[in-house]
Design goal:
The chain is of the alpha/beta class. It has one domain: Metallo-beta-lactamase, Chain A. Helices cover about 20% and strands about 25% of the residues. It contains 7 helices and 13 strands. Strands 1, 2, 3, 4, 5, 6, 7 and 13 form an 8-stranded mixed beta sheet that branches. The protein has a 5-stranded mixed beta sheet with strand order 8-9-10-11-12, with no helix packed on it. A hairpin with an 8-residue loop joins strand 9 and strand 10.
Length: about 280
């Protein structure tokens, strides 16, 4: 049975970047075939906690944002049967305690990476996420895997070390084809189509036919690019985690590349907030 996929925007981060601010929407995905409901990624902490722990502004996050996103589809957290975090960084693997009845499916070495991350990734993993996972009952609440997996007909997982050691990418079959929820393997379209002016307002023509690896990674460039190629070889479209332009409902919306860079708000000024104004007044 084919699945439908709903992109759930559960928050936004305003990340210091190159002397400016990069706006990153935070997405999860609801995958539903009318019988089984799967949540891909579980979002970030409430923005108040992100401000406190990382000194980064934004909006949304936490239990409230996830509950509201699910309620828009007439669902509650208890209606979710599986949660599949692509990885355990704070903006993708938080809020797992909201789903005590679900089974979390995770690569074993991603859990180990969260316990003892490489130094450059320490800031991205949270201790409370690790504790939540360790305390879950196995195998009903936590299934640790070590490779690719076909979870059920129409839903498979590729293990692709790249952005993190235990990165896993769901491949979901819809009526129009297969969609890869690529998360941070390439978190904007510009990483997958770096030479295409529809994907980036600064197309890199010399990368025509190639990909652009993320600067945040635990593997070498060749292995990272091989992981991206493996996704392309097994799917029809990719859905990045932090691009504003991703389709909201698949297969009703279906495209490999957005029509243009219009709507890519990544480098637009973020909306003002009291926290931002207070931070500037004390600078």
């Amino acid at each position: 049975m084919a699945f439908e996929i709903h992109s759930l925007r559960v928050g936004e981060l305003y990340v210091p970047h190159g002397g400016g601010i990069l706006r990153d929407p935070v997405h999860c995905w609801l995958v539903d075939n009318g019988k089984t409901r799967i949540l891909i990624d579980s979002g970030m902490p409430a923005i108040e906690e992100v401000r406190r722990s990382l000194n980064i502004d934004g909006s949304g996050g936490g239990h409230e944002a996830l509950r509201e996103a699910l309620a828009a589809h007439k669902l509650r957290p208890d209606d979710i049967e599986f949660v599949v975090p692509t990885h355990l960084h704070f903006d993708h693997g938080h809020n797992l305690d909201l789903f005590p009845k679900a089974c979390v499916v995770l690569q074993r070495n991603e859990l180990f990476a969260a316990v003892d991350p490489v130094p450059t990734q320490r800031i991205y993993y949270r201790r409370d996420t690790v504790i939540e996972l360790i305390n879950r009952k196995r195998p009903s609440q936590l299934r640790l895997i070590d490779s690719d997996l076909t979870l059920m007909d129409g839903f498979s997982i590729l293990k692709l070390p790249s952005h993190t050691e235990g990165m896993q990418i769901p491949i979901v079959t819809t009526e129009r084809g297969k969609a890869a929820l690529v998360s941070d393997l390439g978190d904007h379209y510009r990483y997958w189509f770096p030479a295409d002016p529809r994907a980036s307002d600064r197309p890199m023509r010399f990368l025509s036919g190639g990909y652009l690896p993320s600067p945040i990674r635990v593997t070498g460039e060749r292995e990272y690019l091989a992981s991206m190629q493996r996704v392309i070889d097994n799917t029809d479209i990719v859905i990045p985690a932090h691009d504003f332009r991703i389709p909201r409902h698949m297969p009703a919306e279906w495209f490999a590349i957005p029509e243009s860079t219009a709507g890519d708000l990544g480098h637009e000024p973020p909306p003002p907030s009291d926290w931002n104004r207070n931070a500037k007044s004390h600078a």
